[in-house]
Amino acid sequence: MTLHIFWLTVLTKITLYFFSSFFPTSAQVNWDSPETLQSKDSVVSTATGRAVAVTANPLASDAALKILERGGTAMDAVVAAQAVLTVVEPQSSGLGGGSFLLYWDEQKKFLYALDGRETAPSRAGKDDWLNEDGTPLSWIKATKSLSAIGVPGTTALLWEGHGRFGRLPWNENFEESIRIAEQGFLPSPRFLSSIFLAKRIGINHSDAFKSLYLPNGDLPNKNIPFQNKALARTLTRIADLGVEEFYRGNIAKDLLIDLNKYQLDGANVRTMTLNDLANYQIYERNPICRPYRKWRVCTFPPPSGGGIALLQTLGIFEILMPRNNEKKNVFSWHYLAESLRLADADRSHWIGDPIDWPVPVDGLLEDSYIKERAAFIKPNKAHLSPLPGTPRGSELLDLASQPRTSGGGTTHLVIVDIYGNIASYTGSVETVFGSRYISGGMILNNQLTDFSFVPSIGGKSISNRVGPKKRPMSSMSPVIVFSGNRPVIAIGSPGGWVIPHFLSNAIIKLLDLGLPPKEAVETSHLSVRPTETILEKNAFWFKDQLDIVKKLELLGHRVKTRSFSSGLALIQLRDGLWHGAADPRREGKAVGLQ
User: Fold this and answer.
1) CATH of the domain at 173
2) How far apart are CA 566 and CA 82, in angstroms?
3) Are 82 and 427 in contact (CB under 8 A)?
4) Residue 426 among the catalytic residues
């Protein structure tokens, strides 16, 4: 039976790959994580060297490698890679979106966290996501609303990061992206599938999107280079004139003209203003860290909720699964699922932009609270829809929990340079191709849909409610893991709400099971919803799937199986060299410099 299941899995993967490669219009929308799964063969892209880069697209990885070969830093390579991703992976990230950066400065021995999250306009109101009758907008309608477009932060983050950590001239880092946008690139199966997904979600509100990505109503020809000359001009202006051009120059003015043009039927949507663009700020945050076994895991603080969820999950799991019990069995799946569910309950309740509510970060992560949450979990029974806890610092907060959000278009990349600097960077435009609105060839985000659609429930405010100049809670969780004072792992993933789920899985595989990067990115995931435990189907490593499902159900889990579209990018220091691996569920590539 086991052999039969194995070969059935192999045939299923081959079928999915063939179908997605030649018939991208067959793609289906999954509202938890709408980006398509790009099934490939079982070969994981890996690389080894003194310097390594892993991104979600081969062209972006190659651009990063060229920068590293010229003596550029990890930050220079981040600028180059994100600029190329703006061209070749616009469904996931771009200069019209937002991003988080964790950066290890090897010379200073210091970890930085730069927040380039999108910001709500100064005119944003608590009723932006409500219909006239007070009911929340549908998710589909919200994704294409002008109210969903936050003030972009990625360009400012790249500029700030380059000013602090860059070595090469700013404009040199844009050469590859400008060339690719001007000359074109052959559309990949995932690129074409994503365009079709955007069409299913809705594009009739954006003639510019249809003109660029669906010429004559059809998908771009996979054998003809896809060009975006308007984006080439925008990238050139940013390369030549810097951040001022984006936030206060002609790019900013053209963006406002386009937003006004997109207003429909005389509607007066409270979109961003020139002042909102001119006043955008990068915030330097304090990374949040917790010990896990003998390591220290560091990630991003609020407005990321994913970082806290990841550290809570690992902390609870460590208590429940002692180090001497490393074998994967039903209890490890059970305890991981329960840990994830408790962390999700806290994330939905307590996390928002710290400028609005005092987020009890210290209380959520302190040992006594983690032990209290772990004690709630029983070895013989699953708890469905658990309530949030009451961490220290929350005594004066009377809040309601936010309903879980849908997934979005996101990318992650990790880079280590020859100097020992490390970047773990996550960027996003939210839904596939963001809002599908375009300005200057750039996709504009719809990141403000990450706010709660309702500002309160039962008279209690929601921490992640929309408000002027607020940054919506994010699940993006760039991670750097330390052994002593030495960074040994950098990792992250796209995936919307389930980003910390993917990362918890991968970190446990790396640190507890000792799997190499290749196996850590390709083996099966476990995720949860409040009332469901979700196992990844068609994964080679999960050979005892039917047995595990049965045992979990006996513990009270409502088990579902589905595919995931994670995009793990991972580098790990092993035997004195950096080893990188890219998630085979997408089209990522790892490259190395010897």
Assistant:
1) 3.60.20.40
2) 18
3) yes
4) no
Q: Rounded to an integer, what distance in angstroms lies between the CA atom of residue 358 and that of residue 355?
A: 7
The pLDDT score that the predictor gives to residue 17 is 32
Whether residue 513 is contained in a domain is answered as yes
Sign for the pseudo-dihedral over CA of 372, 376, 377, 380:
positive
pLDDT tens for each residue of 38-62: 554 568 999 999 999 999 999 999 9
Asked whether residue 244 is domain-assigned, the answer is yes
Q: CA gyration radius for the chain?
A: 22
pLDDT, tens digit (0-9, with 9 covering 90-100), for 281-327: 999 999 999 999 999 999 999 999 999 999 999 999 999 998 655 45
In whole angstroms, how far apart are CA 148 and each of 130, 137, 139, 351, 413? 12, 12, 11, 20, 25
- How much is the pTM? 0.93
pLDDT tops 80 at residue 264: no
Mean pLDDT calculated for residue range 395-410: 85
User: In what side-by-side order are the strands of the sheet with 288-292?
Assistant: 46-49, 577-582, 569-574, 486-492, 479-483, 295-299, 288-292
pLDDT at 29: 47
Q: How confident is the model at residue 28 (pLDDT cuts 50, 70, 90)?
A: very low
Check 36, 73, 271, 410 and give the catalytic one.
Answer: 410
Q: Does position 534 have pLDDT exceeding 80, yes or no?
A: yes
Phi, psi of 177 (to 5 degrees): -65, -40
Torsion of CA 216, 221, 224, 230, to 10 degrees: 50
Domains in the chain, number: 1
Report yes or no: 570 and 580 within 8 Å, Cβ to Cβ: yes
Output the CA torsion sign for 17, 64, 50, 306.
Answer: negative
Residue 75 lies in a domain: no
Nearest to 495 by CA among 423, 594, 552, 565: 565
Length of the chain counted residue by residue: 594
Is the residue at 548 inside a domain? no
Dihedral sign, CA of 29, 522, 524, 99?
Answer: negative
